[in-house]
Amino acid sequence: MTHTFSIDTFxxxxxxxxFIIAExxxxxxxxxxxxxxxxxxxKHAGADAIKxxxxxxxxxxxxxxxxxxxINQGTIWDGKYLxxxxxxxxxxxxxxxxxxxxxxxxxxxxxxxPFDNSAVDFLxxxxxxxxxxxxxxxTDIPLIEYVASKGKPVIIxxxxxxxxxxxxxxxxxxxxxxxxxxxxxxxxxYPAPVEEANLVTIPDMANRFDTIVGLSDHTxxxxxxxxxxxxxxxxxxxxxxxxxxxxxxxxxxxxxxxxFRVMVQSIRTVEKAIGxxxxxxxxxxxxxxKFARSLYIxxxxxxxxxxxxxxxxxxxxxxxxxxxxxxxxxxxxxxxNLSRGTPLSIDHTDS
Length: 351
Description:
By secondary structure, the protein is of the alpha/beta class. It has two domains: about 5-55 and about 90-275, TIM Barrel (Alpha-Beta Barrel), CATH 3.20.20.70; about 285-350, Antifreeze-like/N-acetylneuraminic acid synthase C-terminal domain (Type Iii Antifreeze Protein Isoform Hplc 12), CATH 3.90.1210. It contains twelve helices and twelve strands. It has helices spanning about 30-45, 55-60, 80-90, 95-105, 115-125, 140-150, 165-175, 200-210, 225-230, 255-275, 285-290, 325-330, and strands at about 5, 10-15, 20-25, 50-55, 110-115, 130-135, 155, 180-185, 210-215, 235-240, 295, 310-315. The chain has an eight-stranded parallel β-sheet. The chain has a two-stranded antiparallel sheet with strand order 1-2. It is elongated and about 100 Å long.
């Protein structure tokens, strides 16, 4: 089964390079300068794209200080109210145009996750090449329908989704005539425990939904992301930060530039190793077949003498008859004198 997905100039299919996204999220820490430097560093670290988040505290929640709006789920943000967290973490909309231009100048694809219809329209005016549906928005079917109606590729994170949620999100896109969909396996924990990654879901999702599938990874380190590529992930998204010591809402589970660069290199190496299904030998491997086993004379044989296990044997190198002919040769007579170390040939035996 062949899967395809295109975002801007990057075509993603079963044999293309993995599309690697650096997630800016809140890692600018309220500084436009930091945001610009982070985008530039992501390019130098080997990212293909930078992803933003487009919301304000008021477009994603309301300012109410009750328990309903207080985070208490065993996360790194426990004790904060949603409004305050999102006010701290949001990327100001007035930065977006400049950040898109910086990314373009760096040769990076830039797109974003909208969290309401106004953000969708705002990003559309910026000519975003794609939209990302965040994990916690996968059940917001009206939002997904509106995103899909823009006719741009849609990447959907599945962090809080059960099977029917994914089915409904895809159906919402299809109702708008949008079939350019990619799914990201995701564990919505921050940081995410490795044992909850369940990466074998990736090939199942690709087959079940007939889509390109990737990984939005919140685990620490690069092991899970690299393993996901080996299992067929064609998109990898990781939170990216200049320096975790700078702090911020997402700092704890974000990668620094050198870590990201090493991950990218490892992914590119894994891509080479995955290759394609083939049973053909390379020229190098073919040349090495000379060191395979074959039938050799191991004791001098006179013409007319029978071949036995005492005078022929399967040994290295591979210049003689293949070992599969041993039983056929045993008991036959040598046509010529053969000295020890001679590779056995079919011409050496009688019929």
